[in-house]
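Please check this.
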Amino acid sequence: MKLRQSNSNQLEQPVMQMELDGHKTYLIYIETMDGLYTPIGLELPDGEGPFPVVLLASGNGGEGMKWVLENTKTRRYTIDKLLEQGFACGWIRYRTEVELGYNDGGKLVKDRRQGREMFNRSPLEYEDEISIIEAIKEYQELDEERIGLLGMSHGGEMILKLTSEYHGVRAAVASEPAAHEFLALNPDDSVSINPETQLRDIESMQMQSVSKVRKRINMEIALERICSIETPLFIMGRNQDELQGIFRVSYDLLYEQKKEVIWKSYDHDLHGYVYPLLGKDGNYIVNDVQEEAINDVISFFKKHFS
């Protein structure tokens, strides 16, 4: 089956259909805001569409279609669970995260010069995700009114950035959202500067405490961003994570501003527990906590897609 676009005036996105370990996957290159392309791997459930859609994201970007192919093969446990429930879904990829690009670059402004586009800065990774969302709405097999996002770690922070200025998705799940930039957090001395690159090394940042996080964020900036969010959100924490305070404060501020948001934290030792890993024996390493988390995600989307 070939994906069909609804709008004949829309530029057709390059699509390849492949069998990846027995699964039919549509590999699509999506045109982004500046005319470059970013890849996704889309799968459809059995039956007749249009289907609700959940797009999966993880981490800070880069690696292109190679990343999509690898993760479609080796991190598809959650994909299969979503397909079983009648959701179209798949991995998205986007350009590499820019250190403080969101804070320092400001809002993307589009203008024209000599008849061509001119931007005040390059688009960022979360804006690639917006381009992906807008592009897939053109496919007849997909329900443009029922699009959801599941983002983990930096992919979770991207959801907060995205929903603060774009309102084109029905619901979104931010799992372990590393939202320090979104919250305008001033790190403590657990963050160092790489002397070779002069970029921050945040791998050892310790932000477990809610009170500590609240004292170190720029509340005025954080609330300005929070207040513009309209999308229902599910914030997922991880009990022993070094950034648990950031996860919880992200939820608390949303709740305090009377946004439609829920919170739940899970006791698991894997950062990224919502995406179980494939073991060397070819079986997924998954336990009851992960099953509970994935079922909670599915229930959340079912509620908001109904």
In short: The chain is about 30% helix and 25% strand. Residues 15-305 form a domain with the Rossmann fold fold (CATH 3.40.50.1820).
